[in-house]
Specification:
Number of helices: 3
CATH class of the domain at 9-46: Mainly Alpha
Largest sheet: 2 strands, antiparallel
Oligomer: single chain
Distance between the termini: 56 Å
Radius of gyration: 28 Å
Order of helices and strands: HHHEE
CATH architecture of the domain at 9-46: Orthogonal Bundle
Length: 99
């Protein structure tokens, strides 16, 4: 067992410290029980079999639509409710210093 083994009180304390958790004894017991259940579930999984072929998951396919010019809201109508305007658009307060 390693020093981070949640099946030991020392492991629970070390994991809680890393996660910046302040656990009382009851919470530490529940944390250890929960982590133990997760480890048992992970250990029950079958090992990976790379010899069986390609992975079923991979990078996402690009499914972007083509850009097309379409009619949109006229500028005057979109700015009708603007509290302030500047340079044909919405005027907003600066968020970066010096602007």
């Amino acid at each position: 067992m390693t020093e981070l083994d949640p099946r030991t009180p020392e492991g629970i304390a070390a994991l809680a410290r890393l996660a910046r958790l302040a656990l009382d004894p009851e919470e530490a017991r529940a944390f250890g029980d929960h982590m133990g259940r997760m480890l048992r579930w992970i250990e029950s999984l079958p090992p990976a079999r790379p010899d069986l072929g390609e992975a079923l998951a991979g990078p996402p396919r690009r499914t972007l639509r083509a850009d097309r010019v379409r009619p949109s809201l006229p500028p005057e109508e979109s700015l009708a409710g603007a509290p302030e305007r500047a340079a044909g658009g919405f005027r907003v307060p600066a968020v970066l210093p010096g602007e």
